[in-house]
Amino acid sequence: MESILINTTDETYPVIVGNGAIKELPNLLRNLNPSKVLIITDTNVDALYENVLEDHIGREWATYKYVIKSGEAAKSFEMFYELHSYALKQELDRKSVIIAFGGGVVGDLTGFVAATYMRGVPFIQVPTTLLAHDSAVGGKVAINHPEGKNMIGAFYQPKAVVYDSSFLQSLPESEMRSGFAEVIKHSLIRSEPLFHFLFAEVRRLDDITTEKLQKMILEGIQIKADVVSKDEKELGLRAILNFGHTLGHAIEAEAGYGKLSHGDCVAIGMLFATWLSNKTLGASLPYEELSSWFKEIGFPIEVPESQTTEQLINKMKKDKKTKSNQLTMILLKEIGVTTSEIFSEGELYSLLNEWREEKRGDKG
Ligand SMILES: NC(=O)c1ccc[n+]([C@@H]2O[C@H](COP(=O)([O-])OP(=O)(O)OC[C@H]3O[C@@H](n4cnc5c(N)ncnc54)[C@H](O)[C@@H]3O)[C@@H](O)[C@H]2O)c1
Ligand SMILES: [Zn+2]
Questions:
Q1: Model confidence over 231-274: pLDDT tens digits?
Q2: Which residue range forms the structural domain that includes residue 328?
Q3: Segments of 216-263 assigned E as strands
Q4: Tens of pLDDT along 105-134?
Q5: Which residues line ligand 1 at a C-beta cut-off of 6 Å?
Q6: Which ligand 1 atom sits closest to the C-alpha of 137?
Q7: Which ligand is nearest to the CA of 257?
Q8: Burial zone of 125 (CB within 10 Å; 0-12 exposed, 13-18 middle, 19+ buried)
Q9: I want to staple 266 with a disulfide (CB 3.0 to 4.6 A). Which of 206, 248, 276, 318 is the partner?
């Protein structure tokens, strides 16, 4: 078991990682001395691990559970409202602790409920997806607006993250792949050695052994922890975590939430950002190798045909990081070294079109 400390201005909290990490949960709760405990989970996780948390927590505290419908659609106003109503009905107070038990959807939604219920109650993240090695760390919590992903939210740090990798055993392949995209992202922006390790050792998802999984989770969390500790509120450095996300989020939103996995969309976004880095910065990144590797793993490697470049640019403009008609893209100077570059809307439109054309040419 390993423990990584996250240091932000408001909070210092542990991310406990490893097989069996869940055993730490009662101690963490005891330190918080909750009046009540509310577990929020989703239908899939509940079906697989129905009483697992309750069994670990025991009977020391009055414990309630609310099960949301699985899927991105749950990050909505309606569900947010519903959870507040439920918490009020069970008479949770400011000493109550909320536990997010699930993937990034449960984590983001629960975190935002915790951030706002009675102006904020403590919460603990118990992530169950590979993707959540990213989403559960760093305190960004949010729900979606039909106009854009994660548009309503807060920076609100959990009191602890308990990342028990044994939960990942039941993940379907598509979700494993989705989370793997964020691991690749962490390596590309911050760690050349991790990138080379992944590139050499994980040609297909089946290559991910327990040891490899443990290594990528730990190093991914360490990278995220390091970035977040230096820039909690995304005033500068933290923006590098958006590598692959400007286009990725646009594709995801344009498809309709939940239609394409987050990681699949980010993978397309990372390929475009890599191509763009070579094209506009003169970088010499292994774009072709990355592209065939992604294909082998099963990632989509191009934007869905049904989405027009114009639609995507419009969505990208809604990105929270956009200023007037300029779009900021995180690019790579080399593997592990990022730079933030500004493009005009027209410029990026042409470049995205050119990339798409080039891909069509490759096929024909
Ligand atoms: N807050 C952040 O910093 C941050 C960072 C990245 C992504 N996100 C958000 O995270 C979300 C995506 O997270 P996700 O990919 O974990 O999605 P998710 O929570 O929807 O989980 C994916 C699917 O796997 C199922 N599942 C979860 N755990 C399982 C398990 N152990 N076994 C079997 N099935 C399981 C879920 O029910 C769901 O169907 C997006 O909303 C994204 O915006 C947030
Ligand atoms: Zn992401």
A1: 777 777 888 999 999 999 999 989 987 789 999 999 999 999 99
A2: 189-363
A3: none
A4: 999 999 999 999 999 999 999 999 999 999
A5: 42, 44-45, 48, 70-72, 75, 102-106, 108, 128-129, 131-132, 134-135, 138, 140, 150, 167, 170-171, 175, 178, 262
A6: 3
A7: 1
A8: buried
A9: 248
